[in-house]
Amino acid sequence: MPFDVQAAGTALLEAHSASVALAKAKIRELALPVPLERLDDVALVVVIICTLFSVAIALTLTRALGRTASALRLSTSSRADAIVLMGPKGSGKTCAWQSLAYGEQKFGTCTSVEINELTEDVKGKDARGREVTKRKVRVIDVPGHPKLRREAMLWLKQAKAVVFVVDSVTVANERKEVAQFLFSILSDENFQRRRLPLMLACNKGEKLTAHPPDFIRKRLEREIEAVRRAAEGELPSMAINSKQRRANAAAQKKRDKYRTLGQRPGEAFTFDAFARATACPPTTFDRLSAVKNQVEPLRDFIVRLRH
């Protein structure tokens, strides 16, 4: 059935008139001191305020329901079989996810605040250069907004591997934020204990101002070392009794074990040294152009993962 613009406009005008009439009746019922000649204006303002308030409530409920649904999926699934796309906002995680899901950009570029998930066959080249297909690969795109960082870290429990997407153009200016996020992942107990494979996907490689992967690697190594040293100097948690002090000391010792990133005293952080010290697989660095659907290195990384 075709959409009738005129009928829709008429319905909106009728709804508006009814709302204003209802507001005027309520003002008279409450005997508010409003001059008669200003009654229409005041009623219109009341309707606008109520409409905006209703929209704000609807948006809040929608976001809350979205977070609840994400938390429910996270809590009800015990599978640790997902390729988890992480990284700061605006780096192109959702574009990379769309390339894997559809082979094209269906939704254009956007800043995602919701979890995107797919289970799809992924084609790529194995270590010998042969074309292979990995069946039913679960890929999760996690929002990168700083306010959602804590929730994002929880998805490591379901990770089989982590793909950390960075913007090759802006990474030099945003290196501190990127390094802090990476440090949170590398120092995570679950990440180190399960020895998760890590790929740093240097996205937006099609742009002339994009930095090469080797440059990004060296800059991030220096910044992560600075974050690691700063974490060593953090104050211990306060305690009010001996039992709590012992518990805090044990927790601090456990955190420090992972926060060192496996580096010996006096040794600076590098991704290679981290892999040797923690027995994690060597970190993969490669260039992508998700917006142009040039994500072959990502596909190759996925198909080369062990089952």
Automatic annotation (TrEMBL):
- Principal cellular location given in the protein's record: endoplasmic reticulum
The UniProt record lists the keyword Nucleotide-binding? yes
InterPro entries named among the record's database cross-references: P-loop_NTPase, SRP_receptor_beta_su
One molecular function GO term is: GTP binding
The record's similarity note reads: Belongs to the SRP receptor beta subunit family.
Choose one Gene Ontology CC annotation of this protein and give it: endoplasmic reticulum membrane
| Name recorded for this polypeptide | Signal recognition particle receptor subunit beta
Tell whether Flavoprotein is among the UniProt keywords.
no
The species this protein was found in: Ostreococcus tauri
Which keywords does this chain's UniProt record carry? Endoplasmic reticulum, GTP-binding, Membrane, Nucleotide-binding, Receptor, Transmembrane, Transmembrane helix
**Transmembrane intervals:** 42-65
